[in-house]
# Entry
Amino acid sequence: MEKFTTLQDTAVPLEVENIDTDQIIPARFLKATDKAGFGENLFKDWRFDKEGKPVEDFTLNQDQYSGSILIAGNNFGCGSSREHAAWALKAYGFKVVVSSYFADIFKGNALNNGLLPVQVSPEFLDELFLAIKKDNKESFKVDLENQKIEMLSSGKSENFAIDPYKKTCLINGFDDIDFLVSKLDAIKKFEEKQTQMREAAIQ
Amino acid sequence: MKKTLFDKIWDAHVVESIPDGPDILYIDQHLIHEVTSPQAFNELKEREIPVFRPNKIVATADHNTPTENQHLPVKDLLSRKQLKELSQNCEENNITLYGLGHPYNGIVHVMAPELGITQPGKTMVCGDSHTSTHGAFGAIAFGIGTSQVTQVFASQCLLVEKPKRLRVNVNGELKKGVTPKDVILYVISKLGTNSGTGYFCEYAGDVFENMSMEGRMTVCNMSIEMGARGGLIAPDQTTYDYVEGREFAPKGEEFDKLKAYWETLRTDDGAEFDQEYSFDAEDIEPMITYGTNPGMGIKITGAIPVEGGKSDAKALSYMGFKPGESLIDKPINYIFIGSCTNSRIEDFRMAASYIKGKKKAENVNALIVPGSRQVAAQIQEEGLDKVFEEAGFRLRQPGCSACLAMNDDKIPEGEYCVSTSNRNFEGRQGQGSRTILASPLTAAATAVAGKITDFTKSLN
# Structure
């Protein structure tokens, strides 16, 4: 997995709440058997109309916005568990998604793909949207080590929470698979114990 | 210490707790399907890691499969390739597959319970968010992403943070015409689409105690629609009766032994929850949704709220509805009865009992898709197929179908569909489609009337 430490970049605002993973990547694009190529279908039905022409007022089609940080409304990534949503965001070029709330499964999927979900307070999220509206070239610094997101022009910042284990994984580029495989002996012991535990519960 | 049902099952599956980190949770049963598994198999192959416990995995083909002519090669080439890879991967790794055409084939959350694979006290996962369905048996069941599918392949375990505990109580007697689907749509409409995020939800109270297993599955299925990773209901005699005698259920003495363990799986009196809500059954009426998330629900005779959240205007504009509007008499051209939420035999009995002796309205395209081959067979055995046929409904072969429209079963752009599925997201049932979530009874009544109707008046 790609490592993540700090990132300084401009951001793309997407001020919509409850963005579900069906919008991030519609189901008709889930027939692939590898992870490549999902970026071009990111937000497909919001980005393009029926004829395949870009929808002008959609944020990803607006030249004034660019960067590898996506700032989105509350409860981002709800709905389907499709990891294709995280792959699509990553393939498109996003490295960080900021919102005031993330759905559980999406959050896990993002972290497993080196895409950092940064959860901020609703108030700070409003400030972020305002800052981009005021100046679309506003830069943001996301510092994973110090768990801090900062607006560079004003210096305003907020700390964000992240599971310490996941933080270590991201900073070092580790994933869960190697870790779990290293635990196979303990897992086998657990399997042997399982029946006894059930019997003990009945006593 | 007093423990909740959830704690009891979770704690019995923790292999190790990482200090300041997640738990290593052992998974008793892994279910897989064609859409979220191929990349996981590829990853294993690349890293030269074998599947650790193939006998704890069961596969089915359901998401992209056609619901007509299943005996013929699948026309859509991408779907066909995905299905072929599933077969190859299962064969190479000694995993049991109930593929298209197999008598046990069906939607993963319908076939596993009916085969007795789903059992109380188990931990179960699948690369599908509606895995919460299996919680109806008093199991911890939740949806995972493809990276996690790989983790379970490699170790039969997951690294997961223990969720918080939530309890939803519904007590009292449900009114005539109010189904389990209405109960869960009501709860989600009251609590909102992210109220359960970070939680596992136990459903308690006499409404759930009096529900059939099919009804409990409908309720637990939609836990994810309020953000909860899973939902569960304490196992009881209804559960044991459902499980006993099924293909992969424990038999004889083993069943009795396990049943004694299952009986310990209830929340202790005085156990604490991080959050708790209570509702009265009498307040619940048949429900429909008006927006683009499952939390945007109203009683069928109600009006769309005038004061909504920030994104409600976008949702209403997509749906073509106005604040304050009632949906009664709104013409509807499509209805869909199916999906992992409502495609079990009881759902079709419910629909058929309303439809019997009636005809669908001329404007309506009515699609009925059983959840599994076994359900399809039972529909025939009970003669429900005749009822549907005579009423002008189209009965198809099993699969996920128009719930997510990965196959040809799509709702055309701009059309409304009263659907028994679980998600009314933009474009969920096809690009530009507009979904109104409801129970099988409401969908059947809509098909007969050709519009949304207050059918409760006509119930005996």
Observations:
- Chain B touches chain A through 74 residues (CB under 8 Å).
- Chain B has a mean pLDDT of 97.
